[in-house]
Structure formats: structure tokens, C-alpha cells
Task: inverse folding
């Protein structure tokens, strides 16, 4: 399957919490997938190379069971090693073109664009399959993140023909306005993984997208 042509990023986009226990990580992600998560990004800032390899491989198998793409954060080599569906790059994580050369055409590349439309335009020109803007709301994971606005989404929606992901302090309550402004996907860590009922929290987000389709 050629992901960059066929798989559009949309729906609830979960980013994994920093969890050292692989079995616990899989339990949490499985619950989020059961609640309707449509994309999984593996991100673990605390893990060493060996644990990252183990966790990414295990998530690869789990996401295949649910037919959901696995994106690896900031690490093209790891994405290749586990045959992930793609990679997500921040502004300092190397060039999109270089990642494309290494990954080939069949994989997805996402780019963090913060609150800068010109960064998103450049990423799309270089072949990014989706772009991410944020932080939209105060985030416990990245308290110092730059601020993005729903207006930015509206403008970007006019100019870009790649999927747009919104990130940063998003909840099922405040996410509605971001979907209304043009976001295709909502990227979430705490609002799902810090919830007492992970599956239920994921389902609340999934329902927003279902409502959008029928609205």
C-alpha cells in the first residue's frame, strides 16, 4: 500500500506517553485504539535505543491488528527498522527530502510547523504528507510551547491540500472549535492517556469526528 497517496491522516491521533514498561504501554495504546484512535505516534523521550526498538516493534504489531498507521517521532532509522508507516519530524530533526530518500515513496512524513504557516507551506512543497500546528491550548507536556490559534488553521486550510493536525492541550471539549476551523486530526497525549478511562476518553474524541461527518 502506498501510504503517502492512499492514507490520509484524520481522526484521533494519539501520541504515546513516556512509559518504560512495554506491556503497560501496549495496554494503554490498545485501549485507545479500542476507543477509535486512527493514528499512533510512538514518542518516548525517556527510553534508550534498545527499549525504543522493543516498544516500536511491539506497537507495529498492535497497530497492524487495528489497521491503523504507526508513525515514529523524530527517528527515521527506527521507523525503517520496525517498518513503521512513517515518521514525524520537528524543525530540528533533519530535512523532509532526506527522510523521503531514506524511507521511500510508500511512507508518510509529518512535519511540526508550530504556529508558522510559511513552515507548513515549505514542508508541503518538500513532500510532507501532513503538517501539525500547535500548541493551541496550555499543554502539561510542553508548557513553553508557542501558541497557535484557530484562525491559523482557517488560513492554512485555504492554502494547503495536505491533512492538518492540531496539537497542544486539546480536550474533547475544546477540540470541537479546531475541527470547525479546519483541522483533520487532533493529536493528544494527556487527554487520553492521563484519563482514568482511556478507552472512554478516546471514544469521546472519536465521536467528535463521527458527528462532523453527519453534520
Result:
Amino acid at each position: 500500500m502506498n501510504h503517502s497517496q492512499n492514507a490520509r491522516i484524520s481522526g484521533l491521533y494519539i501520541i504515546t506517553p513516556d512509559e518504560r514498561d512495554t506491556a503497560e504501554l501496549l495496554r494503554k495504546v490498545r485501549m485507545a485504539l479500542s476507543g477509535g484512535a486512527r493514528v499512533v505516534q510512538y514518542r518516548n523521550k525517556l527510553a534508550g535505543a534498545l527499549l525504543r526498538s522493543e516498544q516500536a516493534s511491539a506497537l507495529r504489531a498492535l497497530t497492524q491488528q487495528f489497521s491503523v498507521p504507526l508513525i515514529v517521532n523524530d527517528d527515521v532509522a527506527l521507523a525503517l527498522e520496525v517498518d513503521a508507516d512513517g515518521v514525524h519530524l520537528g524543525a530540528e530533526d533533519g530535512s523532509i527530502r532526506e527522510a523521503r530518500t531514506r524511507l521511500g515513496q510508500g511512507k508518510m512524513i509529518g512535519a511540526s510547523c508550530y504556529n508558522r504557516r510559511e513552515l507548513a507551506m515549505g514542508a508541503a512543497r518538500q513532500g510532507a504528507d501532513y503538517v501539525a500546528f500547535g500548541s493551541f491550548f496550555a499543554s502539561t507536556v510542553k508548557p513553553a510551547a508557542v501558541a497557535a490559534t484557530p484562525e491559523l488553521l482557517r488560513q492554512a486550510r485555504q492554502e494547503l491540500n495536505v491533512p492538518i493536525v492540531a496539537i497542544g492541550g486539546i480536550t474533547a471539549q475544546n477540540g470541537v472549535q479546531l475541527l470547525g476551523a479546519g483541522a483533520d486530526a487532533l493529536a493528544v497525549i494527556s487527554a487520553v492517556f492521563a484519563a482514568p478511562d482511556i478507552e472512554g476518553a478516546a471514544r469521546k474524541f472519536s465521536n467528535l469526528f463521527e458527528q462532523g461527518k453527519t453534520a
Remarks:
- The chain has one domain: 3-214.
- DSSP finds ten helices and eight strands in the chain.
